[in-house]
Write a structure and sequence with these properties.
mainly beta; about 55% strand; globular
């Protein structure tokens, strides 16, 4: 099993920046992607950004230009720097790790709440 532990969420005002962190442990061999998804109340979980082992990022359209995903492969940690936060960014942010290609196995963290409000 893969254990993902997130940190860094909280209540912030619009326009500020916030960085989320997620560390993977356990059966981490064969993880080929790590990243972030989010889920707002009453909505489905959606992609925010992922990064493969080669460092190639994949961003949702709303994240492009505002959010930056990075990884520390040696520490199996993924970060999400969120800039110019908006109230509509309010959601529970989930760390994700993937194994496999033809058959993808998803692993999830417990989620961290991000609330953007004045």
């Amino acid at each position: 099993q893969v254990r993902l532990v997130e940190s860094g969420g909280g209540l912030v005002q619009p326009g500020v920046s916030l960085t989320l962190s997620c560390a993977a442990s356990g059966s981490i061999l064969s993880i080929n992607s790590m990243g972030w998804y989010r889920q707002a109340p009453g909505q489905e979980r959606e992609l925010v950004a992922t990064m493969d082992n080669s460092g190639n990022p994949n961003y949702a359209d709303f994240a492009k230009g505002r959010f930056i995903i990075t990884r520390d492969n040696a520490k199996m940690t993924v970060f999400l720097q969120m800039n110019s936060l908006k109230p509509e960014d309010t959601a529970v942010y989930f760390c994700n790790a993937k194994k496999g290609s033809a058959w993808v196995i998803d692993y999830w963290g417990q989620g961290t709440q991000v609330t953007v409000s004045s």
